[in-house]
Amino acid sequence: MSDHDSEMNDNENRIANENNVERDELRRQDELRRQNLLREGNELDGNLGQRMRHVMVPFDSALEGNRRFNRSEKSNIIFLSSGKSNLVNMNNTHIVGQILRIVSPIANNNAYVNRTYRGGVTQTQQVAYIRLILLRVHNEDGDNENSELFYLMVTRDDNNKLFHRDLELRDNGVISIGSYLRILAPCEIEKNLQGIPLIVTKKSAIAMREPLTLPNIPINKEIYGDTAVSSILNGKYISCTRTDATDTTCSGLLCDKQCVSDWNTQNRGCGCFSKNANRSPIALSHTVVIESAIGLEPLVMTEFSSSKFNKLFMKDHIPASVRLQCFEDETLDDVENAIEECMDFINNNGGFTIVLWYRRGAINDVSLLGQRSTEDGQIAAGNVNYHIIQISPTNRDLLDPTSRVGRVLQSLKFDTATMRQV
C-alpha cells in the first residue's frame, strides 16, 4: 500500500470516528430531552399527557398544521377591557368560548347595551340584533378564567362574519349549545349587557373540538348581586325524576332544543338559522337532580331539554315522522326505563360532567329608597337562578361505542326505530 493510500484510509477512519461521535452526541441530547419531558410529566401528576388534556384542536384538520393557527396567542377579558388592547398587535390573538345560550330577538325588540367611553362616561343604547350568544371563557391552561362569561351580539355591523367559515357546521349540528368557538382578533371591549362584556370580532370564528376533560369549577354560593358566572362539576351523580314530551316549533340543530319554554309559546325564534327536514320538532323535557352540587345540597332543574343529552339514552334522534301522540302509549314508559338504566350505568362508571351558568339578581331594598341620593336602593337577591346547558359522561370512554363500557351503554339505549311513525 502506498503512502497516499494509507493517508486516504486514515482520513476516512478519522471522518468515520467524527461521525460516530456526532451521532453519539445527538443520541445523548435526544435522551436528555426525553428525560426532561418525562420529568416534567412526573411533575404533572405523573402523566405526560396531563398537559394535553385541555388542549383543543379545530374541526377543520387542515388548520392543525397551520403555523399561524398554532402560534396564535390567548387573550383574556381583563386585557380586552383595560383600554390597552388597541395599543398592541391583536391580529394573531384569540379567545375561546363555550356556547351557553343562543337568543333570537322578539319582533321589534332591541337590547339595552351599556357603552363606556374613554372619559369614563357610560350611556345606555338600544341595539337591534340578529342573535345574542352567551359564552363561557374556556382557558386551555385551566385557570379560574373558565368561570367568566361574555356575549357575542350578531348585528348588521358587528360579528356579522362569525359563522362564515363554518356555515355547514352551524346548520348540521356540529356547532350548537355546548360547542366551542375560537374567536379571532377580538376587539377592545367597550360595551356590556347586564354587566356581561360584549366581544366583537371582524373575523370568522373557528369551530373547535371539545376537550377530553374539563377543569372542575365548583358553584360559588357567595357571588354578588347582579352577577353571572359559570361552573363545571365533574363526577357527579344525576337522576331524572320526571320526563315529558312536548311539541315545539323547531326542527333545527343549533339551539339543541334548550330553554323551550322561553321561545316555544312566544313570538321569538329558538336561535336556529335553518331547519332540518330529518329531525322531529318534539323535545323531551326532564327534571334533573344533581347530588351534592351546591356543597352538600342537591341542585334541581326543571324543564331541562337537550338533543345532545337525548343521545345518552337513545340510539338515534327522534324520526321526523313521529308525532307527539306516540308518547301517549308505552313509548314514554320505555324511554323512561332507558333513561334510568343508562343514567345508573353512567353514574356507576365515573358519573357526569355538568356545565352550567347562574346569576344572582338584584332587587330594590325598600328601606333604602327615598334616603340619601348616594344609595341606589339595590341589594343582592336571595335566590340564584341556575341554568344547566350540558350533561355528559365524565368517563369519555362511554361515548366510544367500540369501548367495553361504550358497548354496554349502547345496548341499554332506547331504539328509536321501534317508535310508531305516521
Description:
Helices cover 21% and strands 29% of the residues. The chain has eight helices and 16 strands. It has helices at 3-43, 67-70, 77-80, 167-171, 260-263, 307-310, 330-347, 404-412, and strands at 73-74, 93-103, 111-116, 122-127, 131-137, 149-154, 180-184, 191-193, 196-198, 206-208, 227-236, 238-247, 282-294, 297-304, 352-364, 378-393. The longest helix has 41 residues, at 3-43.
Q: What's this entry about, in short?
A:
With 422 residues, this protein is α+β, with helices and mostly antiparallel strands.
In terms of topology, how is this protein built?
Layout: H1 3-43, H2 67-70, E1 73-74, H3 77-80, E2 93-103, E3 111-116, E4 122-127, E5 131-137, E6 149-154, H4 167-171, E7 180-184, E8 191-193, E9 196-198, E10 206-208, E11 227-236, E12 238-247, H5 260-263, E13 282-294, E14 297-304, H6 307-310, H7 330-347, E15 352-364, E16 378-393, H8 404-412
